[in-house]
Fold these 3 entries.
Entry 1:
Amino acid sequence: MAKMEIAPLRPWDDFFPGTERFAKPDISDLIKWNNRVVSNLLYYQTNYLAVVLVVFMIVGFLNPLGMILGGAVVALVFMGSVWGAENKVMIKNFKKKNPTLFVLAVMGVSYFLMSLFGGVLVFIFGITFPMLLVFAHASTRLRNLKNKLENKIEGVGLKKSPMGIILEALDQQEEKINKIQDFLESKMKQ
């Protein structure tokens, strides 16, 4: 088993270079878009963590109780969904067949629980907005050679990172998505 490694903080000119390294994702090819997002999440995970922490701290400074409550609710819902996917066959099958819908369901349940406590705006700005920033960057940032190489090393199990473990818990590994793509292409050829 590979030991856990924290990805290095990527330089600013690599993380946010000029417009030539960004492109609109091809929404007609969802698998390619998903691969780009997963790849960038793994490669820039420390940069994304820094962005999330900055926004989280700004909102937390403005409403500390709401942020603590929001973070606790999201963490508990996430841990509950991962536990449910491991121990309940129905949830496990749903997660395997619809990984993106599973993630959206986790976010929806978190949102619903936050609305019960009256902290929806704190949730939106403190938790959802940073996730939206990360998703927008991961969707539009083109991969480079170092990015692809780093992801292949993690994909074959030579090393593990915190984001890799989270993506694995959500069934969002690139190699599984590639297998699905190969299966769909073979079915389309028949």
Note: The two ends are 39 Å apart (CA to CA).
Entry 2:
Amino acid sequence: MRTLLNILWLVLSGLWLALGYAVAGLVCCLLVVTIPWGIACFRIAGYALWPFGYSVVERPGAGVASGVGNIVWLVFAGIWLTLGHLAAGVGFCLTVVGIPFGIAHFKMVPVSLMPLGREIVRSDAAYPSYRRARGASR
């Protein structure tokens, strides 16, 4: 089911989101000072391609620099990206078929709001109970 949802997501909005985040990452990497945000954009672009089966978790040991960087990101890009994901999520949730895609947009809110100090991991690694529910052999 995750594969089917990821393929539909890719066609409906994932490709465009990933391209947007990748372009933003390239721009951030060209401006040498903003390389940490560029790397975060590339990480988000990968998540935007295949969000089903993955989760965003806080990285242990992220220091003060991540917090300061997140505040800068929040002011210049985070608020606008989050509003876009919220609007798209609400739009998708207006239809019954679009609800999983709306939820995927809502899952992207934390990483688009404050990307530094977060990791994108497989859902079974983020939530051990998820792995037990699906069976340990999968």
Note: The chain is about 70% helix and 5% strand.
Entry 3:
Amino acid sequence: MTDTVQAEVIMSFLVSEELAFRIPVQLDFDSADPYAVRLTFDLPGDMPVTWAFSRELMLDGLSRPSGEGDVRIEPAGGGHLSDVFISLQVGSERALFRVSAPPLVAFLDRTDRLVPLGAEEVCDTLEAVLDRILTEASKAS
């Protein structure tokens, strides 16, 4: 059995300097995959789109520019717990979002209470051992 953490945040989709749309985004963490967080964009009329990336990347992006390639996260301003920019890129297409940092911090805090950062491998190993024990027990019955 796995445990999950979920939260909904409102992000601003920055189309241009003059145009932005506020959209709800679902944040998900599953202890079965403790290294990752998922952002799901479920807009009316469109199929939901989910991006998965490192939980550590989200944490690092709260205080400094982080990420290479398709996902980049960085503080929007110099203040403590300011807004955060999240940039998602596929090929030459890029989407830029702005979100308040405190809801991300609260989400990450909840994930850390479930699976502490740095303890992911221990959880993976424990889960594998438990699965093996339960499988062997069911075969013996």
Note: Residues 120-140 form the longest helix (21 residues).
